[in-house]
Amino acid sequence: MFSNVKRLLIGPPKKLQQLREERLSKLKALPILSSDALSSVAYGYQAALSEIAFIGVAGLWIGLPIAAVIVLLLIALILSYLQVIRAYPNGGGAYAVASDQFGPIAGLVAGAALLIDYTLTVAVSVSSGIAAITTAYPSLLPWTVPLCVLAIFGIMIMNLRGLNESASIFMWPTYLFIFSIFTLEIVGFVHLSHAGWHYAQTPPFGVIPKEISVLLILRAFASGCSALTGIEAISNATPQFREPTIRNAQKTLLWLGLLLGLMFAGTSYLTYMKGLQVNPNFTLLGMLAQSYFHTGFFFYFIQFTTFAVLILAANTSYSGFPLLAALMARDRFMPRMFELRGDRLGYSNGIIVLSILAIILIVAFNGQTDALIPLYAIGVFLSFTLAQTGLVKRWMKTKPPGWLWRSAINSFGAILSAIVTVVFAVAKFSQGAWIVLVILPLIIYFGVKVRRHYQTIADDLRINITQVKPSPHKTIVIVPIAGINRVVAGTLSYALSVSDQVIAFYVGFDDEAIERMEEKWKQWNTGIRLVTARSQYRSIVRPLMRFLNTVENWEGAPDHIVVAIPQFVTRKWWHNMLHNQTSIMLRTILLYRKDIVVTTVPYHLSD
Amino acid sequence: MFSNVKRLLIGPPKKLQQLREERLSKLKALPILSSDALSSVAYGYQAALSEIAFIGVAGLWIGLPIAAVIVLLLIALILSYLQVIRAYPNGGGAYAVASDQFGPIAGLVAGAALLIDYTLTVAVSVSSGIAAITTAYPSLLPWTVPLCVLAIFGIMIMNLRGLNESASIFMWPTYLFIFSIFTLEIVGFVHLSHAGWHYAQTPPFGVIPKEISVLLILRAFASGCSALTGIEAISNATPQFREPTIRNAQKTLLWLGLLLGLMFAGTSYLTYMKGLQVNPNFTLLGMLAQSYFHTGFFFYFIQFTTFAVLILAANTSYSGFPLLAALMARDRFMPRMFELRGDRLGYSNGIIVLSILAIILIVAFNGQTDALIPLYAIGVFLSFTLAQTGLVKRWMKTKPPGWLWRSAINSFGAILSAIVTVVFAVAKFSQGAWIVLVILPLIIYFGVKVRRHYQTIADDLRINITQVKPSPHKTIVIVPIAGINRVVAGTLSYALSVSDQVIAFYVGFDDEAIERMEEKWKQWNTGIRLVTARSQYRSIVRPLMRFLNTVENWEGAPDHIVVAIPQFVTRKWWHNMLHNQTSIMLRTILLYRKDIVVTTVPYHLSD
């Protein structure tokens, strides 16, 4: 059953050769690797303003200096990451850099921060993308959460099908979004110049409202920093660029910085000039578009390209999270199941886990982007800090030409990132950042425990092949039966095939049923011993367990106690749920509770 | 792992003796059996008014005649159900009556209608209960869906723990709710009389607004009939009453009718006098309470008792649905898994399926009670119709004293119910009733198919015990291995114990790995044959399947092909997810795809 549904949704399996990726041209790399960063324009400034929204119109101007500082931070980070590209042309990101420079535990910290960050990227991008749609169609507003869940489900299915992320179709949302925002900015600035660089509704600048405090400004700044998430993607993907890879990746990163800076600064400035205030039902960017294009075609065009680029941004986490989880599983910090590739060559477990976590976040925070922001960006800036610090250490050690100014740049980047991380953790603590500060150490603790466990097991399992050899032991087979029929006969035949000690085990709910069974068994006359038990409970599990305990304590107990359970093999997939429920239950309980060999013997149903 | 979590949430297993229920006194039966019916007061009149809400104040008076007709319908149904109690003192409800009088297919129709109805009772009651809370605390409004899901989850856990529904604690919500509503009505009518039976805000009566149409009135009536859902509960539970059971059940039903009629009529009238209009953010009942008690203690008291009685009403479906599903499974209309009792003697599968369906409804309809109403009540009135018609047939056949007027009453009840069903299906079709009209036949079709399938299987499995006897066959054991270690040695030992034909099977991802393995195998020198394969995919499933196909087609192929898979038995529950992922995958695929005996051989990890 499951396999058919899966096949339908996910498609036939892929060959390993298909895995080899083509190299990216700059024109293609830019949109594909920068959707996460550029799409932050859709929520970054709004996240900052929503912290000081309660002040009203008088506080709107404070957004501008905050935006200016964020742009400066952007420039510093771009300079830093140009160095990362040079130092790590094989990519790898913060996990690789931190592991490489400071050892596995620092790597684990960076990895945990990134896993949290990837999850929040999905939740924030999807909720913000759906907000773009509900801004265009307010009647959809009550359906925010279902729409978000649907979007995540869609992205998950696409990724389980094995998405070719470098397909040209993925260029379009980003380019169209860039086009949308620049058109909006050009129209806005032309309009603004005609209006004499001042609108009637432009709020006053520079008057400090009495409600403002340093904490509020720091909070607004921290929230606004969510506009910088995703700028590390290009450096992580350096090896995917065409030759000369380093130069091409650096040029692309410069372009990203330029575009992001202009888009963020321009929309923030126009939002201020228009005097727009945060509204729970509409996005600021949508209101800005509407103030220039009303509800004309271009307004809807902007909303849809915003939606598309945000979904694409969420999708980038679907390559990042599963790959990182697989790398961490290879290093034994995560369960090995993250290393298993599905039929379609994707890391299915990572994809599914990411989707579940993102859906939990969306539901818990009711699909509200602004409510998710306090959890976001803290992981990003923590991993920025670790990557930059690692780089400084590397420059100090290898001392290449220009290492002094290189480490100066990266030190600056590391210090800035560290400051933002601390500001974020302190200012946002009570708003939700504490959740991250609790979960992050838990992931790290879990990773350490997992690694230790795998190490112990590996030592435990190692054998000296000259000494330890397989050899046969004595076995007994127990066959639970509910009556005498063709399936029971088949299962008993199997039992007789593998052992000369076979016991049929019957559980009756009353004495009469047991007597009838014993009578019938005598008539069948198979030479096989029947053991019966009466159940106080209506379940056959308990009596069977008791019986197995007894057998284990027999004198001269066999080395292997086998329980043989029949399994109906049905012709139609849905017939499966009509059978085998008891055997599934038995199997599950026996697998996890007892030192028992569990055998399922198939029986083919003719219908 | 699962078992520990389960134990924690659900508690230790119960004995069968505990199943026997105590008989109920009237004082206890009334609140416990009528919470579903009485709680309908919380949403019935609002559901009716919301259909004509768009007309505004001018349409408010139309609610009153509709409420009057619903009260008349209530009286007719109470009279009918007094007969049902006399005719079926053993209870059983519409499924039993319809099966008994018209055969299994009519029973299946009634059963399917009731299953839908139970599910909607949970969804409607929970969403309405949470609405009572959000009316009291509007800041919780954005969390409607998460709160509903949490409530359903809580009810599910309670029921999996095995709720003693007749516990005295379950009397309180209903009595407190009755007390609340009557206090509200008394205060209201006293206040109203002081005001000269007219408020300033009382809307005009009797002027027909031009927007009204017959369809709208029918829709409002149909929605209002949701106030009558649940009145069948007492007749279903007749055998639980103390002697004289019939008289006691009938007296209780009369009390239910009286209370429901007074509560529904009184609150509806006051709602009209106060000129209250439907508001998406507040319940009508809550606004009515607030209009008399402002935000004083008694307003919150009413909101909380409303919430409690609605949660209790949702809980009644948790005894109804699993029991009905188990009855239908016993009659082979439903998968047998619904017959399995959990450790705590509840029908766990029914409880879980009901919760999942209710959560899907809540999420799909965004927790909006008024949006769920068009799906509700159609199943109730369909089963009312079937039960009443069955009763008429029974009176005709058995002809007890007074059979003529008895069948007259029930015919009247059947015709009224049938009319409501049709009105509902037609008037509400486009609003959502079509969903029920699609799903109902699907459930019936599914039930028929299931029954036919089980019948075929039973015929197929029957054997002549003098002819068919179990007998041993030839077996071969295949052990998939990923290297040589203690686990592999253990699994091979088991294989050697049950068969003299054992093959180890290794999948390598490149030629080098395969060569290394073959070399090492030669050194181990076990006498067991090693077969290797190279994987184009990174999965070991495909090569194993190919190999199993080959073995099946060997000359003199064995009767049983056994695949032996090691299973790590871990000390700590969470270690389970660190191991066994590959073996779970292999086992699942082999169980459903191939004619293979699957054996799991436990290996105890020391850590």
UniProtKB/TrEMBL annotation, chains A, B:
InterPro entries: AA/rel_permease1 (IPR002293), APC_K+_Transporter (IPR053153)
Keywords, comma-separated and alphabetical: Membrane, Transmembrane, Transmembrane helix
The keyword Ribonucleoprotein appears for this protein: no
Subcellular location per the Swiss-Prot or TrEMBL entry: Membrane
GO molecular function: transmembrane transporter activity
Primary residence: membrane
Domain of life: Bacteria
Pfam families according to UniProt: AA_permease_2
Transmembrane segments: 52-82, 102-120, 140-160, 172-192, 212-231, 252-272, 292-325, 346-365, 371-391, 403-426, 432-448
Membrane topology according to the record: Multi-pass membrane protein
CC terms in the record's Gene Ontology section: membrane
Name of the protein described by the UniProt record: Amino acid permease
Species this protein is from: Sulfoacidibacillus thermotolerans (Acidibacillus sulfuroxidans)
